[in-house]
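The aim of this short unit is practical: by the end, you should be able to scan a pair of folded records and say something sensible about each. We start with the first protein, listed as its amino acid sequence and then its structure tokens.
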Amino acid sequence: MHSGRTDRSYRWLLGHGARQTWHRFRDDWHAQPDPARRRLAWTITGGFVIAVAVMLGLVLLVRHLDSTGRLAWETPLVERAGTWQWFSFSTALWAESPGNSVFMIPVVLAAALLAVWMRRPLRALAVLASFFMLDLVVLAGWLAWNRQRPGLIEGGIAAPGLHSFPSGHLSQMVAAYGLFTWMWMRASRSLAERILAVLPLALALADVALARLRLGSHWPTDLAAGVVIGAVWLAVIITALRRAEAAGGR
């Protein structure tokens, strides 16, 4: 007689929580003023086009420099990185973790969920866009130029057969962690704290950049391009969020 019971005691907690989160987001999203929602959507859309254009411009620039021999300095630099005694190969494998998608995706999803439960739907979407939409921008660079990875250290074991330009690790770190940093700086009234907020981001970027170089996973210009395109996308997301909030959104 109890085989058809559907009371909440028989529901999965994760499923119930997911439904509650979605309902909260949906209700808060519909409660946002139309101008705020439009500004967020159109600014991100327009910014995406600009970011892809910048990405393709970087491809043309670095590809030209590479074809004319102006990047010959990269090979000895990567080889020298492979001899660093103060930063071992095994240490670099661990040190690159903050920029790895396996690490970043849970962090980004947690930040978006927190924004939803704080009733900040626009901020939740901005957090998700900062990471996942950037993948498409980076993909445009990879499709435009299938640059081979260095493969100069440890037989290229840490240089998978994927596109090298630009660095997806650094681009996503700049965009996602940069957005978190900007939110922290914006919320603080202390000048010292705002300055201090930049330090973890700078250290994390330096750590991952050196780790990727030490592993032989990227050429130096891959890393630089990752920082540039990540900064462009971060500017797009911040602009979209500020414009939406100026229209009464949150």
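Turning to the second protein, read its sequence before its tokens, just as you did above.
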Amino acid sequence: VLETARGLNAEKSILVVGHQAERVKEAFPNWTGTFINQTPQLGTGHALQTAEKELKMFQGTVLVLSGDVPLIEKGTLRKMLQLHRQSRAAVTLISTEIKDPHGYGRIVRDPQGVLLKIVEEKDATLQERLIQEINSGFYCFDSEFLFSSLFGLTKKNRQMEYYLTDLVRVARGKGLTVSTYLHTPAQEVLGINDRTELARSAKILRRKILKELMRQGVSIIDPSSTYIESSVRIGQDTVVYPFTVILGKTRIGAWCRISSHVVIDTATIRDGAVIPPFSWIKQQD
């Protein structure tokens, strides 16, 4: 998500961390934005409240992203930003439709299709739980509306948390515009709540990485049995054979042959090199 956000050239970037905050910070040693600790963690609205001091002098559009939705693409966020500006909305959000909406906040509309509110699953009625349009957790806010409304949120819900989603109802109550960008396919904007969903998203991301490498001229004999991380760079006309794992900031030249059952971790491989089967290569610090 941070990599995607970096491509939007934001004026300022803030990462709100809470649970195991120090481990999260350690995972991004080269990130140039600002870390904000959310202590205690009292919901999504509270997360943004903790960042208010860093943003209160800002005027413009505040883009809020969810760190557990790794498949989001820059193009999708740009479309949301464009809709937000064209509609002059106080709030713009991304929604999608899925057959099994369990665990997600539901998009509640009136009979004419106008968005009324977002209801979290634990607070939803049986009828509302049947709704298949769900909230993705990506928002654009007009800064003036956001900072004048943020601290008016309450914890009157079953989770006793400050919901960021309540700002949709607040904006409607003030007669302001709320826009929705209905996105398909759904998989790009779905979050990760357990290890099953983690594996699902990782598989999709792996396919995306391999597809881009092949478009750049890398031959991958069997994509289904090849694991390459997004930080890896491989030269044109290199061939990667099945059951290969390439990690970290590995740099592989052109016209190489990476045989089967090879693991390469943060190493530099020169042009034309042949890596024999069952090799394990790791560059020492």
